[in-house]
Amino acid sequence: MSELGSLQRTLGSMHSWPQDILRYLLLVAPTPYTLLELAAFFFGNGISLLRATDFLLECFSPSQDHIDFFRSKYDLWERCHDTPHTRIYEYYDMSNCLVVELRGAEYRDLCVIVESCIPIKLGFGVDVFPSSVRRKLDDMRAV
Question: Model's pTM, two decimal places?
Fold first, then answer.
């Protein structure tokens, strides 16, 4: 069964997700940078490692090294217990529609805005995503 519907119920429609996140999931080959961005987005928005990795597997074919790297970020952030004032990374918080600081599992409620005027492009945009992406998402929804 696809994680797409479940994630959209939790995070909202993919049309409201940051365009960069959609690109990293559906268009570009994974790199350490894109995997870090994806991990921060899913972890920061409270998506479990299992759901996030299942979704990555649906979106592209990550290698075991990619999965291990992604998992290592979740593991690191889960262990951050004594860092309420230490910024680990930043991510787009879907509940506030802002870029905020990632501070670890115990400090998800400490929402510190990184920059309130960062222009974040949301959704699929015009002429950004080829029709093959729409077909892939349709196939994922059909499962």
Answer: 0.88
